[in-house]
Amino acid sequence: MSMIPKEILRKVRRIEIRTKRLVNDLFSGEYHSTFKGQGMEFEEVREYIPGDDIRLIDWNVTARTGFPHVKKFREERELSVVLLVDASSSGQFGTRERFKSETAAELCALLAFSAIKNNDKVGLIIFTDSIEKFVPPKKGRAHVLRLIREILAFQPRGIGTDIAGALEYLSRVIKRKSVVFLISDFLNEGYKKPLQIANNKHDIIAMKITDPRETVFDNVGLLELEDAETGEVYVVDTGSKEFRREFQARAQEDLINLKREFQLINMDFINIRTDRSYIVPLINFFKMREKRL
Which of 16, 64, 155, 284 has the maximal Cβ count within 10 Å? Predict the structure, then answer.
């Protein structure tokens, strides 16, 4: 087993302290209310009591006995949560508070600690243009700390992004219906069909991580940019008002189109920015999900 660098261990510890406080203070109850488990498991049929939900009446037993009977269910609480994390080169980008990859690691920690506090399992799939790491769902603090270490210390082989391939792999290895957090900047195409198929089987929540420089440019004159995934270098003139306006409008349009695509397949979407707290978007997501239940 290779030694884990001390800096990574320090980061893991900082993230654990930060996110566990948030879990204890804010997210654990929200998580429990939002994700109810795999559904209700049938337990027995009993006679109807005034006040019972009439939608639970078992008409076959009622017809057979001549007395109204209702079905009784027990909540099947245990969930599997899968963190499907994009580790392509574009994640190693950040101009303000933190890199996109560091934001992803904190989000994963927060979701994983919320899951284990509710006695759920957590698994991890890291992908680039191929599947780079798979850790099957398990319970426990030690397991969550391992997942955070894996994300922070991860050195990808690939530099591109293949969301479609990651979703197809998810469908193959995770047989049981799971809550899947797909964490990416979604700078990729061709994944709509696999996403629809995977979302029919699992409960997928898309979390887009965006750096402010990907949506708006300040006036800093001529700027040389390199595409992290293709290596292509190009020069832009940020001094041009027209360029800045067009760039911002295109980024806004891309975000609107992405949201619309997810809405069309009835999939939840959370937009996270590296220069802002992720707490408010997450709490808003939990509240919105709770209202729908």
Answer: 16
